[in-house]
Amino acid sequence: MQALTDVTVADFTQLMAGGWSTQKLGDMGADVIKIERPTGDVQREMSYRGTLLDGTGIGYLTMNRNKRSVALDLKTDEGHRAATKIVEAADVLVHNYRPGVMERLGLSYDDVTEFNPEIVYVAISGYGSSGPYADRPGQDLIYQAMTGLTSYTGRAGEPPTPAGTVVIDEHTATLAAMHTVQALYHRERTGDGQKVETNLLNAAVDLQCNELTYSMNVGEDLDRGEKTHGHPYLYPPYGIYQTDDGHVAIGMAPLETIADTFELDSLAEYDGQRQLFEHRDEIHDVIESYTETRPTDDVVDELVAADVQASAVRYPTEVPENPQVQHNDMILELDHPNGGTFKTTGIPVDMSSSEPAVARSPPGLGADTRDVLGDCGYSDADIDRLEANDVIRVAGDSRE
């Protein structure tokens, strides 16, 4: 038995902050019912770099395994009634609509607790459900900029630099999933459901606990170095260095270890953490004067032999070949909803009991509408009528 076996999630989410959070619940064993409009989740047709994978957005494939798809029109009375029946039988509802949308749909927390008082109701928004920014639109980049992350990423003299992945959405999704499980545990102990709210702005602040605590207490911003240092308040050797055929990342280590390993006697003149930080650019150049003459693999081997954290800088296409990634089963091959298979990332946690697992590949649009509505008491004739009236969409529907 998995941890969330027998837990049903009514999933009104799309995009990463919502969609990835409910996938995590599905990985834990929850029955996640993805409620989509008849035209489908926007990510089904959203390209990455102008590319779809066999006609489907890669973002959809990434964030929707272990779910069942029900396609219905919430703006119709019958579609709303069907959604209400799904929510009535659910343990959890998750949505990431902007504030006010679920209220207009008649599915606010107050509405839902009228017929399902023990529901765990999870609301994910951009800035929170109230406050001066509550009605603003937002996206990952906006929160990175608003909370300082872009100001200290990159090199001195260059423009503010965003992270290479949507770190705020990713952290928000993880926080939402974690606190959903917390609320379920609370309900198991007390019998009480509750509302859980999180937002991307809060997640952006939480993600930078070290950096913001430093700046708030020391009273200074984080200045970037001119070199590829790994972090604006850490000091060498932490950073990325050019090699003869690529780049190498070096982690935290005593500078004397680097000096001994690379036979760089000039590093001995730098002593103490403050001096290391103040002279970080020139220290970087001294270390790089050695690494840039050597093949990447040789540099990594030398450092690992000296018990220093080091890795070649790899590209995404190289990650599946990493022997430790393979050993950890972090690359999965799943069925594509349009036929064939695709590769995606695996589950990052091992557990001795209640192991997370992938039981379902991402569903085609409306693939489970008939089964889910049947579970809610609809007859085949009822479902056929709803389909004919364009209230729902079922698998194999070829409408434009």
TrEMBL record:
Residues 348-372 are annotated as: Disordered. InterPro entries: CoA-transferase_III_domain, CoA-Trfase_fam_III, CoA-Trfase_III_dom3_sf, CoA-Trfase_III_dom_1_sf. One of its GO terms (molecular function) is transferase activity. Keywords: Transferase. The keyword Cytoplasm does not apply. It holds the Pfam family CoA_transf_3. This is CoA transferase. It comes from Natronoglomus mannanivorans.
